[in-house]
Amino acid sequence: MPDDKHIEMAAMTDVEKTGAYKAIDGEQPKSKEKQIRPGVGGALERYINLVSAINFGFILQCSWEATALTFQFSLINGGPASMFYGTLFAGIGTTIVAISLAEMASMDPTVGAQYRWSAKFAPRWNEFWGLMQGWITVFAWTCGCTSNPAILSNIVVGLAIFNYPSYIPERWHTTLIMWAFTILPFIGNFWFRRLLNPLETIGAICHVVFFIITIITLVVLAQRSTPDFVFNTLTHDVSGWSNAAVAWGIGLLTVTFPLAGFDGVLHMSDEVKKAKIRVPHSMIASVCMNSVMQFAFILCLLFTMGDVDKVANTPTLLPIIEVYYQATGSKHATNFFVVMLAIIVFIAFFNVFASVSRLTWAFSRDKGLPFSNVFGYVHPKLKMPLNALALVGTCIILLAIINIGSTTAFNAFISLPALALYISYFLPIFFLFLKRMSSNPPVYGPFKLGKLGIPINLFAMCYILFIITWMPFPTILPVTGTNMNYAGPLVGAVIIGALVDWCISGRKRFQVPVARPGPEF
């Protein structure tokens, strides 16, 4: 049997060897394709092993923690029924989506991932679809990067209200806190290689140990809910939505958002050893483990929530604080449990920052972004895309200003990345499905679905379409300028901006892919 290294070398695509897009299907590269110029693009080093790759995705999603800190959306829309049955639905659906993308990762593990695959498998207008997909994916991950500091700032404000009831939070307080939480991960990513192993180890231990501690504490101390409340209560008309089905659909945001982002390790592909084998395994493993933990936590939470009215109307804005306080009866214990959630979300922020900076670098390397020579640069000593990292940090700082203008900006930081990410998953799966049905099927990698590929891709696409239908909906009626859901309009603005970019210069500038040095094993 050949070893992993020989499998990797044999499966290497023509793209990786020549850098010409048309060589993917065995055609000769056209002369108009430009090769990479010295000093532009650069190369990252492969240093991430299998354990680190799995831990990267495992911690990045931090699903049960994110669910604990955002389930207020489901309390007013759908309630327990949306949380329990939605968790099962989201776990199965997201796993199927991850399997579909994992097959493509095995064919071509690349930092660009979705935009490169869309360009690779699209039957026509390949460069157009690649550029559009690139803008959507970069936007999705940049917004996803804001969700971590947004959640952390909510924790700080919530604990401040909990411990000091006289404190009156201002919206600009949250913005400043988001900025503060962005600084350390930004600086930490300068030495990401040195921080990776200890961070992944600490994060994985905390992710599991704190989960066990939380479950045991709530089961032993908290007041029990009835099975009828957990399995049969469908909350509607609390938020203004009188239709039960609509309320249930909007409530899915709580359980689908934490499971998005499993493609984070994909954008580290140029730094993963034996990427064609390890990246698909990492994606599927992280989704499966996080789905199980999320389901177990939701089930425990619903049975141990205590007084639902107090939880739903807590002045801290974070219902989980009230849940812990009712269970323990201690402010010190409640502070500890909420802080431990913050620690894991903060560690995950380092991973998200690293992933989106690599994606931005790759898109710039392929001349998808304006000023591509600047943002596609890799620092020769740090071996990292320093300028792309600075761009992502700047975007987070600017997006945080939304808090000042909107009382429900936190909803935008949660729904925005989820909506854009699921859109970014749909296009490559759709084009791969068309490729499967054509007379010229793709060349598969070590991980392939075989005859199951068509039904799995179909299910994944249907699931994505269903999920993204609800994400632009406002969570509260009537809609005003301060409580509207900005996810739909902002995603639409990005798509329009990408179309404008294509018409002005993108069609001449964008290349899929740009040649780069061969991978190191």
What does this structure look like?
The protein has helices at 4-11, 14-18, 50-61, 63-70, 72-76, 79-107, 114-121, 126-163, 171-188, 192-221, 227-232, 244-251, 253-256, 275-303, 308-312, 319-328, 331-365, 372-375, 386-399, 402-405, 409-437, 453-470, 487-509. The chain is built from 23 helices and no strands. With 521 residues, it is mainly alpha-helical. Its main location: membrane. Keywords: Membrane, Transmembrane, Transmembrane helix, Transport. InterPro entries: AA/rel_permease1.
Keywords, please?
transmembrane transporter activity, globular, 23 helices, Amino acid/polyamine transporter I, 521 residues, membrane, transmembrane, mainly alpha, transport, Amino acid transporter, disordered N terminus, single chain
Give the topology.
Layout (H helix, E strand, L loop, with lengths): L3 H8 L2 H5 L31 H12 L1 H8 L1 H5 L2 H29 L6 H8 L4 H38 L7 H18 L3 H30 L5 H6 L11 H8 L1 H4 L18 H29 L4 H5 L6 H10 L2 H35 L6 H4 L10 H14 L2 H4 L3 H29 L15 H18 L16 H23 L12
Order of helices and strands: HHHHHHHHHHHHHHHHHHHHHHH
What is the residue-mean pLDDT, rounded to a whole number? 82
Rg: 22 Å
Helical proportion? 55-70%
Annotated CATH homologous superfamily: Amino acid/polyamine transporter I
What is the CATH-assigned architecture? Up-down Bundle
Tally of DSSP β-strands: 0
Subcellular location: Membrane
Membrane topology: Multi-pass membrane protein
GO cellular component, one term: membrane
Transmembrane segments: 83-107, 128-152, 172-192, 204-221, 241-262, 283-305, 336-363, 384-404, 410-434, 454-473, 485-504
